[in-house]
Amino acid sequence: MARERTQLFRDVIDGNIPKRVPVCVSFSIEFAIQYAGKNLAEAQWDTGQLEEIFDQICRDFYSDLLPVNAFRFPSFYKLLGARNFVMSSNGFLQHPEVEGLLQEEYDDFIASPYNCIIEKILPRLYTELDTDAATRALALAKAFKAFHDEMGNAVMIYGRLNQKYGYADINLFAGFTEAPFDFVADQLRGFKGISTDIRRVPDKVEAAVDAATPLMIKAGLQPFASKYNATFIPLHMAPFMRTKDFERFYWPSFKKLVDALAEAGHPSYLFVEHDWMRYLDHLYELPAGTIMRFEYGDPKLVKEKLGDKHIISGFYPVALLKTGTRQQCIDKAKEIIDILAPGGRYIFDFDKVPITLDSLNVENARAVLDYVAANAGY
Amino acid sequence: MNTKYYKTWEQYLAEHPEIDEKQAQVMKPKMQGYEDMMFSFIMFLLM
Amino acid sequence: MLDLQALTKAVGDLNEQQVLAMLKEFVATNPGNEETVAVVNACQQGMAIVGELFDQKEYFVGDLIFAGELLSSAIDILKPVLGGESTVTVGKIVLGTVEGDLHDIGKNIFKNMAEAAGFEVIDLGIDVPAATFVEKVKEIKPEIVGMSGVLTLALDSMKKTVDELKTAGLRDGVKVIIGGNPVTEEACRVIGADAFTTNAAEGVKICQGWVK
């Protein structure tokens, strides 16, 4: 089973036509906890419960790759007094708008991004690091331990579930990084900050993004090169910018990042969030075999423009799984597969990760996944 | 990387001439490994 | 006298340097109330152009955010010459991101644009419980209540808020608009809101229609 499934993905990555369209869907940790009928806050703290919780997703939803992938846990964020990841009253870990870097600190960041991160940005976003030196050292030590405990626990669980369910032996989350502009935008300057900066201090934004690039490349490197293990890069800001701003501030450093990872032997797995239809020609320029999961847009146009060079995924609207009939949901899967599957280089996935249990009708989701697994043969 | 908070093994070794070659061989993967783990953790906190 | 059309155009172009220079020059002439109101009006017309360019996909969300910043710098410059009574409010909006949701970008864009259109906006912030909405509606007596959210679970909180407004006997006295990623026509109906939008500029237009 695992061997056959692994072959599906290897064929897609190698540019061969697989036996069937591989299915790679994933559900959020919140979805999984709600599905198992557990308490959100409790299960995210008491992570010993997660194996049983994730197991129910694996049991009930067809996928050729492990359908759960959690990597943010409240323990280490809380130990650090995080302001950027906060659990709200109902147990959702959310990301409020923050400003880790002040506009007047651009020059410090440009001179040495990593010094600036350690000395200024982290203490601003993590209150326990905004303390005296000894308290700060202890806080970081506790959080580092918690981080590795949680990740270790998660990796063990994933390993056992991979074994039990015979999932494919490839990893699309073997590394994790961000586009340099997104890194500067998301937690350093914030959406509002960066949107004003690109008009008020454009040269500094450009220099800061360039300065961040080597760090983002290093963050995205995996211990071993393999064309079957990808570095995950969720993309964020580009659809909210004018094309000419994108071309100046976003694209060059992002391209450099993906190129550098490819040179080091790591393909990139992009979550192409929101509407990137303006940027398809840019995406085409990325190294061949980049895996792109689309949230939005015209699958036909994407297949036509990118299908001979890259691997396409996504597009299946989770929203339909909530509102559509079973037949409508299956028809939609058929429609998308008919467009994207010809010639290979396609992995079935939803347009976005279902975040809450009520974001879809469970029966519809199962019907669609079973349909694809049974009928999307070449 | 132009920072005092991250050292490559070569930088570390240059600051510690007392480490002999044999010991250096076994130290390198561990020391570099933890340096990189901390770097990854710090970056993860901002992503 | 300041060239009002040029000012409107500069605001529409989001040409901050030019806008601020024009306004500083204008304020230095110690203008009267009527003139100042005309200038504010020209700025508001510029913001309407920004909204149109957004609809035409010339501008994107980042540009709307900047437009809000530009407008608040403009108002700061004009403040000293703006007489108290000259700022005509077209209506009051009690606004917040509903309980359980901490996202505020969409809400803030809407707030900026609504203020630019002459509304007085009472911003309750994020993760706002239904009871706080009710309390503020009682106190402020706004024409409009705006609820924002990004998570699908925000829809439940929106419904709860509308239900509590009903219980408190306040629902009929206000128009309710909901905004954000998850809102749809169906959600709007279930929640019992009067309007929904995923587009801040459109939301402001709906509100303007209500207070006319």
Describe it for me?
The complex is a heterotrimer of chains A (378), B (47) and C (212). Chain A is α/β, with parallel strands linked by helices. Chain A has a single domain, classed as TIM Barrel (Alpha-Beta Barrel). Chain A is built from 16 helices and eight strands. A six-stranded parallel sheet of chain A has the order 3-4-5-6-7-8, sandwiched between helices. A two-stranded antiparallel sheet of chain A has the order 1-2. In chain A, α12 links the parallel β5 and β6 (291-294). In chain A, α2 (29-35) packs across α4 and α9 packs antiparallel against α10 (202-220). The two termini of chain A are 18 Å apart. Chain B has 47 residues and is mainly alpha-helical. The model of chain B has no long low-confidence stretch (mean pLDDT 94). Chain C is α/β, with parallel strands linked by helices. Chain C has nine helices and five strands; from the N terminus they run ααααβαβαβαβαβα. Chain C has helices at 4-12, 16-28, 33-55, 61-78, 105-116, 130-140, 154-167, 185-191, 200-211, and strands spanning 91-97, 119-123, 144-148, 175-179, 195-197. In chain C, strands 2-1-3-4-5 form a five-stranded parallel sheet, with helices on both faces. Chain C starts with a helix and ends with a helix. The mean pLDDT of chain C is 89.
